[in-house]
Amino acid sequence: MSTAEFPNIARTDDVFLVDALLTDEEREWQQKARTFAQTKIAPTAEADFDAKYFRSELIPEIAKQGFLGMHIKGYGCAGASPVAYGLVCLELEAVDSGWRTLVSVQGSLAMAAISKYGSEEQKQEWLPQMAAGDKIGCFGLTEAHGGSDPANMLTTATRDGDGWIINGAKRWIGLATLADLCIVWAMTDEGVRGFIVPTSAPGFTATAIDGKLAFRASIQCDIELKDVRVSDDALLPGAKGLSGPFGCLNEARFGIVFGVMGAARACLDAAIVRSTTREVFGKPIASFQLTQAKLADMMLEYEKGLLLALHIGRLKEKGELTYAQISIGKLNNVREAIKIAGTARSILGGDGITNEFPVMRHMANLEAVRTYEGTDEVHALVVGRDMTGLNAFV
């Protein structure tokens, strides 16, 4: 894919020719996402991060591009391939992780929960509106005390006549103050079940978390559920036990595998452009051996991460993707993206800590991505369990 249209994207796409491994349809989705991200999001990305402003007015435009729930077939969704979805995530995260998080929370979590586990009536009611951006969803799983241990869930749903009463609290819930519905996971007498909860329901309160040093141009919230009553048709009939939320989390983790390579590319591009234009000791920084070694190492890990993402995408297309493979992708690509960002910062010198460049913003955002949808430690244990057959979680 040519980068001439966007001069801030350097030579990273032209070295290993990963583009040659894509279909025409996948290239079209990537180009559409790149154009949108670079023209609609990038011009204000630094200012929005500084101002802690989520530009929600862009959601209808993102919906018109077909990005919301794009991997779902039918119900007004695009039905695109896993790799096409991954490439859209990459291009959005190349500008800011918060925008990949938007399509992830809406499509891979909230919409995926309804698509995978909802009744036909629930799908017909919600998915077309969510694909169009007319309704925004969030995903209420994580709790403050539990983090990576959802089996220790304290939120409860108790049968009450022809409905349910939900009590509890959730933390780090993306988009909750904007959302029209929340997929709430709660412990019942039957185990963990999922519910479609209107955020307008009495007793449902969402409060944006302030003081963040990452994801400042994105919204994450605390949720309180106090005697929230929903009817029986709010229950997702196909989700029983933790396999329900985990099935959605794996969709989101898949997007991360691609997305963080976008942030890595942005940092590498900044390092290439800066090192070839800034001169010290009478010549460009890029002409020094140590700088070229850094650039080569960054390119190596970027290309390896991109090829890993593509391989995982092809496995997903064939229905052969395992939990361990997703964990390998998330663990490796987030970790290497953070390293690439750090090395890019060193090449930029003191200016690298300013918002003249996107590198420190990406570094901060990637640290948040490293934690959510499973920490490094959790994914390492998933891989270890697959290798040994022994569960080290408990």
Automatic annotation (TrEMBL):
| GO cellular component labels | mitochondrial matrix
List the GO biological process terms: fatty acid beta-oxidation using acyl-CoA dehydrogenase; fatty-acyl-CoA biosynthetic process
InterPro entries recorded? Acyl-CoA_Oxase/DH_mid-dom, Acyl-CoA_Oxase/DH_mid-dom_sf, AcylCo_DH-like_C, AcylCo_DH/oxidase_C, AcylCoA_DH/ox_N, AcylCoA_DH/ox_N_sf, AcylCoA_DH/oxidase_NM_dom_sf, Glutaryl-CoA_DH_mitochondrial
Q: Which UniProt keywords apply?
A: FAD, Flavoprotein, Mitochondrion, Oxidoreductase, Transit peptide
Q: Where is the Acyl-CoA oxidase/dehydrogenase middle domain?
A: 138-228
Location in or out of the cell: Mitochondrion matrix
Q: Which GO terms describe its molecular function?
A: fatty-acyl-CoA binding; flavin adenine dinucleotide binding; glutaryl-CoA dehydrogenase activity
Q: Which cofactor does it need?
A: FAD
Annotated Acyl-CoA dehydrogenase/oxidase N-terminal domain ranges read 23-134
Q: Taking every annotated instance into account, which residue ranges of this chain make up the domain Acyl-CoA dehydrogenase/oxidase C-terminal?
A: 247-387
Please verify whether the record's keywords include Nuclease. no
Q: Which family does it belong to?
A: Belongs to the acyl-CoA dehydrogenase family.
In Swiss-Prot or TrEMBL terms, this protein is called Unannotated protein
Annotated organism of origin = freshwater metagenome
Q: What is the lineage of its organism?
A: unclassified sequences, metagenomes, ecological metagenomes
